[in-house]
């Protein structure tokens, strides 16, 4: 079964701290792994994405780490800010398609 | 540039009714996908269309249907609405129908079935 397991379900971080969200998958027929940020009442917005042939990708304060052998990938938010408070979803695209499997989401709250 | 636009933003329907949701992709994007997001969950894939043809279908009943028009806009139709169809319906567009491009979501249409 194609699933993406995301943890933790919720996360509270102090301003300036590092937020870490993890995802794991079982099916190897995934070829693209984006992260989306969603604010209440809004659609998911693409944050950062990685391909499985790359172990790490950094864009500003956001970094994806990808471990192909362990079938795990994670999002690190450095210097977390109150404006980062949102729900974050990891996703995996089934190879050769536009079908994405989403994780269940992590609700992040950054305390001022 | 305008992003993915969806209409209506909110609507309330009664069980058994029919609903049509509309989506206009980002200019230049030819592929449209539809996702259902139930409160507290991640989006679930319903359909993907490219060049007016269905290219993928998720695990949803036949009450769900969609189509894409020559201008690449799309409609999602749901017949015989059930209470469980209450959700945020997201449209996403991408540049092409192959596997090389990311999908970008609209703000969604909130459907409440009473």
Give a concise summary:
Chain A is an all-beta fold and 112 residues long. Helices cover 0% and strands 58% of the residues of chain A. At the A-B interface, strand 4, strand 5, strand 9 and strand 10 of A face strand 5, strand 9 and strand 10 of B.
Shape of chain A: globular
Radius of gyration of chain B: 13 Å
Instruction: Specify which chain pair forms the largest interface.
Output: A-B, 25 and 27 residues
SS field, number of helical segments of chain A: 0
The mean pLDDT of chain B is: 93
How helix-rich are the residues of chain B, as a percent range?
under 10%
Would you write up a description of this structure?
- The complex is a heterodimer of chains A (112) and B (114).
- Chain A has strands at 4-7, 10-14, 19-25, 30-38, 45-50, 56-59, 62-67, 72-77, 86-94, 100-102, 106-111.
- By secondary structure, chain A is mainly beta.
- In chain A, a hairpin with a 6-residue loop joins strand 4 and strand 5 (45-50).
- Chain B is mostly beta strands and 114 residues long.
- Chain B has strands spanning 5-7, 10-13, 19-24, 31-37, 44-50, 53-57, 64-68, 74-78, 87-94, 104-105, 109-113.
- In chain B, strands 2, 4, 5, 6, 9, 10 and 11 form a seven-stranded mixed β-sheet that branches.
- Classes of the chains: A mainly beta (112), B mainly beta (114).
What descriptive keywords fit this protein?
heterodimer; A: 112 residues; mainly beta; 5-stranded antiparallel β-sheet; 0% helix; 58% strand; globular; B: 114 residues; 7-stranded mixed β-sheet; 11 strands; 50% strand
